[in-house]
Amino acid sequence: MSNCYDSAAKFYDLDYQYQGDFPFFQRYAQAGAVLELACGTGRMSIPLAESGLHVHGLDLSQPMLDIFRAKLAKLPEEVRQRITITQGNMANFDLGEKFPLIIIPFRSFQALTEDADIASCLQCVKQHLAPGGRFIVNCFVPKKHMHKWCYPEKIYREIDGVTCKSVGERVDTKRQIIYPVMIYEHGEQRTEEPLELRYYYPRQLQKLLRNAGFRIVERHGDYDGGKIKRHGGEQIYVCEVAQ
User: Fold this and answer.
1) What is the spatial distance between Cα 13 and Cα 10, in angstroms, rounded to a whole number?
2) Contact 46/52 with Cβ under 8 angstroms?
3) Confidence class of residue 39 from pLDDT cuts 50, 70 and 90?
4) CA-CA to 180 of 20 to 30 Å: which in 76, 119, 140, 173?
5) pTM for the model
6) What is the DSSP code string of 41-54?
7) How far is residue 170's CA from residue 116's CA, in Å, rounded to a whole number?
8) What are the pLDDT digits (tens) for 56-67?
């Protein structure tokens, strides 16, 4: 299975701990429960639960969820009681309940690369949204020149004795998929994690959401409410089920 961080899960939190997106999602999670799809190691789910919310996290990756559960064991009992973890595929899930807020943070929606999986995920989201509920999804905005996603091995961060590198192996412009490889070097150990990520231009993602039966009620280019840029940066959509 691709995009599951099966090899490099233990480096995920080290590499992606500071995203600045938590306050944004917390603002929309004022009451009730939150469903986080592709919850990973609990980077978002845990602080949401610590703020007093009930959180259901779903992820396909067993290594990522193992880390999540290890973190959970160290939390106070009242926080643990507010978190439910399910191993499952965000392209096809049935949790038997509805949520006032469903989120797919940090570009995780782009881990779905097949049209059928993408459509199925959005339908599952609709089925799990409570009346009047909101769905928030985030993807990056493609660069102006997509060939820049092809690049030789380079260092982009060194932290706590770990050298974080990446390689841009190739870009499939027809299917709109990039193929980066994340590399983590710690002492003599080298761990590689190949990824496959679908990319969307803003109009494409907006059309996809509308065709799936959502109405976009807010759109942002960053977590401070900026506008979506033409090239590069983020695209964040707050949606509800269209009537």
Assistant:
1) 7
2) no
3) very high
4) 119
5) 0.97
6) TSTTHHHHHHTT-E
7) 23
8) 999 999 999 999
